[in-house]
Amino acid sequence: MQIHTLASGSTGNCALITAGSGAQRTTICLDAGIALRTARGFAEELGLNLAELDAVLLSHRHGDHSVNIVALAARAQAPLYMHRDNIDTSQKISKGELSRRNIDRRDIADGKTFYVNDIAVTPIQIPHDADPTFGFIFEYQDKRAGFFTDLGNPDSLIANNTLGDLDELVLESNYDAEMLANGRYPRALKDRVSSDFGHLSNLQAAEAIQQGASARLKKLTLAHLSQKSNAPLIAHECMQQALNDSGLQHVELLLAPARGPIKAAQL
Ligand SMILES: [Zn+2]
Ligand SMILES: [Zn+2]
Questions:
Q1: What are the CA-CA distances from residue 103 to residues 15, 77, 96 (Å)?
Q2: Measured in angstroms, how far is the CA atom of residue 63 from the centroid of ligand 1?
Q3: What is the distance of C-alpha 210 from the center of its chain?
Q4: What is the CATH number of the domain that holds 244?
Q5: Which ligand is nearest to the CA of 13?
Q6: What are the tens digits of pLDDT across the range 159-207?
Q7: For residue 102, what are the domain limits?
Q8: In total, how many domains does the chain have?
Q9: pTM for this predicted structure
């Protein structure tokens, strides 16, 4: 099983989860907040086809995740897994759009596992200022991966040991607290981002790993980095320090770019 981010951050999010190969391959798309033509190009770079999806998932209603989700599910003729409370929160994910495009919508609920072929998917509700918002655990054969962005604090993930038994994790590392405080955002936006229902800071992400991760973790991708209130080098250093302090130096640490799949040299 592999996770590929195609876009990550407030200008749009999209990720692919794949397992198996050839005709047996299963592909899931999580969120579609960028132009479909752009997403299609990024998928092609990875040898993947956005028209051949087995399922489409929506984490939450914010436009950077949801704006093209219905169009994507329609084009791929794939079922769209999204929580019912997110319907009608914008025109793009309205009841009318779902029915006009003939979408096979399937409901999701916190902790309730469903299967997309051989991939088990478990939505985990997380604290964010769009209720409900979900992260996901993906399981395939003996591999477990987690995907958590858009959350104001990691407390429930730590308390429920959600990060404790993962081989791979994509985790938000949105902002550096000092850069956010000194930046040009209006006060209200700064407060929103740093609230318990906003986004994870570099330090909160580091704390989540220190308190929640286990030696099973092999690959960690930092995601949803702010382009104004963060810098890849700062986010990377902060997390590398946390990994070193936790005896997790073996973990491969990557950064998801705002646009495009992860390339080797990113810093
Ligand atoms: Zn977002
Ligand atoms: Zn959001």
A1: 20, 8, 10
A2: 8
A3: 20
A4: 3.60.15.10
A5: 1
A6: 999 999 999 999 999 999 999 999 999 999 999 999 999 999 999 999 9
A7: 2-255
A8: 1
A9: 0.97
